[in-house]
Amino acid sequence: MLYFSNDYSQGAHPEVLKRLVETNMISVNGYGEDIFCAEAKEKIKKAIGNQKAEVFFLVGGTQTNQVVINSILQKHQGVISADTGHIATHEAGAIEFTGNKVLPIKHINGKINSNDLKEYLKSFYDDENHEHMVYPGMVYISFSTEYGTIYYKDELVSLHNVCQEYQIPLYIDGARLGYGIMAEDSDVTLKDIAENCDVFYIGGTKIGALCGEAVVFTKNNVPVCFTTLIKKHGALLSKGRLLGVQFDVLFTDDLYFKISKHAVDMASYLRKGLKEKGYKFFIENKTNQTFIILDNEKLKKLQEKVVVSFWEKYDENQTVIRLATCWATQKEDVEKLLKIM
Amino acid sequence: MLYFSNDYSQGAHPEVLKRLVETNMISVNGYGEDIFCAEAKEKIKKAIGNQKAEVFFLVGGTQTNQVVINSILQKHQGVISADTGHIATHEAGAIEFTGNKVLPIKHINGKINSNDLKEYLKSFYDDENHEHMVYPGMVYISFSTEYGTIYYKDELVSLHNVCQEYQIPLYIDGARLGYGIMAEDSDVTLKDIAENCDVFYIGGTKIGALCGEAVVFTKNNVPVCFTTLIKKHGALLSKGRLLGVQFDVLFTDDLYFKISKHAVDMASYLRKGLKEKGYKFFIENKTNQTFIILDNEKLKKLQEKVVVSFWEKYDENQTVIRLATCWATQKEDVEKLLKIM
Amino acid sequence: MLYFSNDYSQGAHPEVLKRLVETNMISVNGYGEDIFCAEAKEKIKKAIGNQKAEVFFLVGGTQTNQVVINSILQKHQGVISADTGHIATHEAGAIEFTGNKVLPIKHINGKINSNDLKEYLKSFYDDENHEHMVYPGMVYISFSTEYGTIYYKDELVSLHNVCQEYQIPLYIDGARLGYGIMAEDSDVTLKDIAENCDVFYIGGTKIGALCGEAVVFTKNNVPVCFTTLIKKHGALLSKGRLLGVQFDVLFTDDLYFKISKHAVDMASYLRKGLKEKGYKFFIENKTNQTFIILDNEKLKKLQEKVVVSFWEKYDENQTVIRLATCWATQKEDVEKLLKIM
Amino acid sequence: MLYFSNDYSQGAHPEVLKRLVETNMISVNGYGEDIFCAEAKEKIKKAIGNQKAEVFFLVGGTQTNQVVINSILQKHQGVISADTGHIATHEAGAIEFTGNKVLPIKHINGKINSNDLKEYLKSFYDDENHEHMVYPGMVYISFSTEYGTIYYKDELVSLHNVCQEYQIPLYIDGARLGYGIMAEDSDVTLKDIAENCDVFYIGGTKIGALCGEAVVFTKNNVPVCFTTLIKKHGALLSKGRLLGVQFDVLFTDDLYFKISKHAVDMASYLRKGLKEKGYKFFIENKTNQTFIILDNEKLKKLQEKVVVSFWEKYDENQTVIRLATCWATQKEDVEKLLKIM
Hints:
The structure is a homotetramer. In chain A, strand 5, helix 7 (153-165) and strand 6 (170-173) form a beta-alpha-beta unit. By secondary structure, chain A is α/β, with parallel strands linked by helices. Helix content of chain A is 40%, strand content 18%. Chain A is globular, with a radius of gyration of 20 Å. The first copy, chain A, has 2 domains: 2-8 and 256-340, Aspartate Aminotransferase, domain 1, CATH 3.90.1150; 14-254, Type I PLP-dependent aspartate aminotransferase-like (Major domain) (Aspartate Aminotransferase, domain 2, 3-Layer(aba) Sandwich). In chain A, helix 1 packs across helix 11, helix 2 packs parallel to helix 11 (241-250) and helix 12 packs parallel to helix 14. In chain A, the strands form 3 sheets. A 7-stranded mixed sheet of chain A has the order 2-8-7-6-5-3-4, sandwiched between helices. Chain A has a 4-stranded antiparallel sheet with strand order 9-10-13-12. Chain A has a two-stranded parallel ribbon with strand order 1-11. The interface between A and B is large, with 56 and 56 residues.
C-alpha cells in the first residue's frame, strides 16, 4: 500500500533517530532540565532571531493547544478560531474540557480575515449585553491551515494589528509550520512568524520528529509557573531529553526547513500531475496537503492501493479526500500514485 | 557526575531503540491504529493471561492517571488514594484540574491498609450527611509505591475484596510495576496484578522506554468512546507507533522483567553496601528505590559527585534522599557510588 | 420610568408573597426535604399528567442549564443548540466552564429545524473522523425561544423523533414556558411538553416567582445522585422551602397559566398598537416578547421615559429592541407606552 | 416536633419579609443593578467602615465559596483549609469540580493555627519538588467554624500576617458570621473581620434571610470581570433585588447583629441547662451551635420529639449531635427541649 493519508505515517527523520541513539546513555536530569533541551532552545531562539524568547517542549498538537490556551486565557475569556480551526473541530472538545469556549468566526479558505476579526471584536464590545457573554481573549490561527492554505505576510500583520488594538494575544498553531513557511507562494519566514504573534508552536510530530512540539513565547509573556501548569495538564514529559534531542537535530543545519521544502516539492509535483490528469481540486493551495474531489466509486478503487484521508462528503456521489506528502515522501511514490490515479 | 536521582535519567533500552530504527520507514496509520500497537497489545494480553483484556497506550504517568481516573469516575465520585500517593501529592493538581477530588487515606509505608479502606467506606455510608460529600468511586494504589514498598499478594487481594464489596474499581498505578513485581520479596506476578484489580497501567517510561505507559482494562470495563476521551485530554499520540514498537520490544522475551530484575539487583547491591557502611534507612524496602537519611553537610559533599533526589526534610540537620537504580544502572556505577559514600 | 425591558423587573406575584408570609415560621427540614417542596412536586406531576415524573427545584435559569446539561451528558458528548440559544450566547460560557461543548446549529427564527438536526446527526456519524470530534449527546431548545417564537406541536414531535432515533435526550429550557404555552398561536400544552422531551424546566423567575425553576425528568432518567450533583454545582438551596412554597402557589388553581396568559394578552395589545402606528417588527411572534426596529435617535428619546432592552444593532442607524410584558404588566402601562411611542 | 437541627429551618425574619412585600411592585433593573442592592451595599460598607470595599450578592454558601475561590486563585494554586472546613468536607467536591485542589491542614477545634499555617507554607517552598505540587494560593477559614468555635482577634491577626508574609489572600466564610461576632466570648467586630482578611462573606441564609450571602472585597481586589465570572458559575440572580432588599433590612438598625445575639443567647441558655443535666459536650464553644455526645438509644428517643443534626459517630454506642439555635428560636422552645432531655 502507498500511504498518502497524512504526514505522520512514518517514524522520524533518520538524523533524528541517529542522534537519539548517540545520546541514549548520557545521564541527564528529567522534566526538560537537560543539556539537549537547553541546546535546542538556543538554536530555536537563534533561528527566530530573538534571544529573549522562551521555549517549552510538549508532546503533541492537541495537548499543546490545550495547555497554551488554558494557561493564557483569563477566566472570563474564550479563544477566537476559524470555524474550521483544529481546536473548533477535531480536538474532541479538549479546549472546552478545560473550561474555555471556542468562539468561531467564519473561515475563508481556512483562514480568518482581519476585517472579520475586527468586526467581531467591535460588535462584542458594542453589544450592551456583553457582560453576559464570553469575552474574546485570544485569537487562534493555524499556519499552514487545516485546508493547507497560508497567511501571507500582510494578512498576518493585519491580524496581529487587530489583536494588538484589542490587547489580546495572537496564537499560531504551527503543527505544519515548516510546510507553511516553505510553501511555494509563501512570503513568510520563521522570524516573521515570531514577530507577528505572541505565542506559537513549531510542529515536530508532522515534520521529522517521532513526537514533539516547541512552544515559543516571544513577548516576555510566559504564564506564571508554566511548568507547573504543564504538569497539571498531565503534559510534562519525564524524559524531556526525547524532545530536546529531536529539536536540536531539526534546528541544526536548517534540517527542519530542508525537509519541509522537500515535502512541499513532492506535493507540487503531485498537484502538477493531478492537474494534467484533469482532477478537480477542492481548494487551491501550495503546501504539503492536496485536496481533491473524487467520485465515490473511483475513491473505492483507489483505496485498494493507496491509503488516503477522508476529508468530507462533497455531495451524494463525490468525496473530498486529502493527499498529504511529508519529509519522508519518495518521488517514486508520487509517481506510483500518479500512475494509479 | 553519577546519576542516582531517578529512574529516567537515560534514554531507552538499546533493544527498544534498535527496533525503532528498524521500523522507522514502514508506513502505518496514526493514532494507535497500527500493526506495532496491535502486536504489542497481543503480547501484553498474553503476558497477563487474559485475552479479553483491552490495552491502550499513553505517553506519561500523570497523563495516564488523569485520563483513567477522569474517564472512570462517575460525576458524584472522587478517588481514594494514600495521602502519599502520587496523585495526591506530586501531580500539580492534575486530578482536581479535571474536576475530581482525591480522597486521602492515611498511608502505612506508602500503602493503603485494607481495614482502613473498609473503615473509610463504611464510615462514609454511615454518615447521614454523605449526600453532601464526594462519594468514594475508585481506589488508587501504586505498585511499587512512592516509598518503594510493595503490596503482598494477600494485601492486594484484601484491597480488591473491599473494593468489590463496595462495587468500586481498584486502579493500580504501575509507573514502576516491573520494579515492584521483581522486588526481592515480591510474591505478586503480572497475572496477579491483572486479576486483582480492575484497571492498571504498565509503566514504560521508567522501565526501558523513551516514554509510554500501557493501560490495561481487565474486566470488560473500558469507558465508552475511550479513544475520544483520550483525545479530549490532549493525550492521543499521532504517531502511536512510537508506543507500540516500544511495548512490543519490552514484552518480547520477557525483556520488561529482565531489566526490572537487573535494577532491583543493583538496588539490593547498593543497599547491602550502605548497610555495611552504617547508613540510616528512612524506610525498609526491596525495589529499585532506596531512601536514606543523611546529614545535610554530608549531602552537600555527596552532591558534588552524585546527582540524588531530595525527598523530604527529616529534621533541621538531616535530609531524606532517594537513590534510584534502573534498567541502565551499571554495577560499576554502584561501586563508585559506594566508594564515594 | 416605564419598565418594558424584561420580564423580571418586579418581585413576585402577590399570591406567592402572601404564602411565603403565611408559611414563614413553620419549621421544616432543609435542602428541599420539606412539605412545601413535596406538595409542589405533586401539583406539578399532576399538571403534566405523569405521576412517575421526578421534579427538582433550582434557583435560576443559567444554573439550571449548567446543572442539567453537565449531569446528563456523557464525557465524550456535547449539547446541540440553536446558534442563538441562551446557552450558546448569553451564559458567559457556563456550559463550557463545566467541560461541555455547545454544538451550534443554524437557527430559523430562534428555532432548530428537525431536518437540520437530522442532517447534523447523520453527517456526524458519516464523518470518518468523528472519533476526534465531540459527540452530539443532547439537544437543547428553548420554549419560548430567545426570539419569542414557539415550536408548534408537530415541530416538537419531529424534533423528539429525531432525538429518539439517535438515542439522545431532548432538553427544553422553559425559562418562559408559560408564555410559550399560552401564546396566541400555541397548540402545545404542558402535557405535550412533558411527553415530547426527556427533561425540561418550568421557569418561575420570569413568571411570578422571586426566583426558582422546576426541573422535570419524565423518562425515569434522573442522573445518579442528582442531589449531590446539584450540591457540587453550588446550586443546592438550604432553604429549599423558598422554592417549594412558590411553585406550590404557582401550580394552585392554574395561577402559572393565568398570569402567563395575562402577559401574552398585554403583549398582543402592545403589538396591535405598534402595528397601527407603523412600527417595523424584527420578528413575528406571539408570546410576551416583542422585537422592533427603531431609529437610533428615536430610541434615545424613548429611553428618556421607558426602560427597554437593547437586542442588537440592526444597521448603523437602527437598533433592534425588545419590549417585554410579564405577569405584572398593567394595561395602563401598555397604553402609556403606546402614547409615548 | 421541635426543630433544633440547624439554623435554616424557618423562613426569613419578619422585617425582611415585610420589606419584600412593600417593595414588590417597584420596577427595577435586573442582575443586581437596582436601588435595593445599591442601598444595601452602602449600608454594609458603612458597617465595616470601609467606603472602598466592594460588595456582591450571591445566593448560597457553597456557591459563594465556589465562585470566590475559583475567581481568586491563579491557575497553579489551590486553597488551604482546615481539614474540617466546609469546602473540604461537605460541599460535594464543588471546589475541585471547578478545577481547584483543597489543601487540608490539621484543625484544632475547627480552626487553623497560624504556626501550623506558617510551617505548611515554609515546608512547601523548602520542598525542592514543589514545582510539581499545587501552590498554596489562598487560605480559607470559617467564622464561626463548623464546630461553632471562633477565632479570637489575635489569632485572626496572626493568620492574616502569615498570609501577607506569603502574599496570599485570606478568605473568611461567614455563613455564620453574625453568630461568631456575637458569641459570648468574641473580641472580634465586623470591622476587625474586614480589616484582617482580603475577602469575606456575610451570611444571610442562616441569619434572617430567605437566601443570600454578601461577598465583600476589602483590598481593592475584585477579580477582573467578576460579574461575568458569577454568570459563568450560573450564580447571577436575575432578580438581584431579592438579595438587595434582604441585606438592606438586615443592615438597618443593626438587625443582623441583634438577631445574631438572640440566637447566641438562646444557645447559652440551652448549654447552661444541658450542663446542669450533666450532658457531655463534644466541644466547648459559645456560638449558636451546641455539640453533645449522646447514647444512641437516648438519641433515638429524643428524635421522636426533636429534630436534631447527626454530626458524627463518637463510638459504637454514642453519637455526636448538633443542636442549633437561630434568630427564630423561641425561649420556650429551648425550655421544652430541656424538659424533654
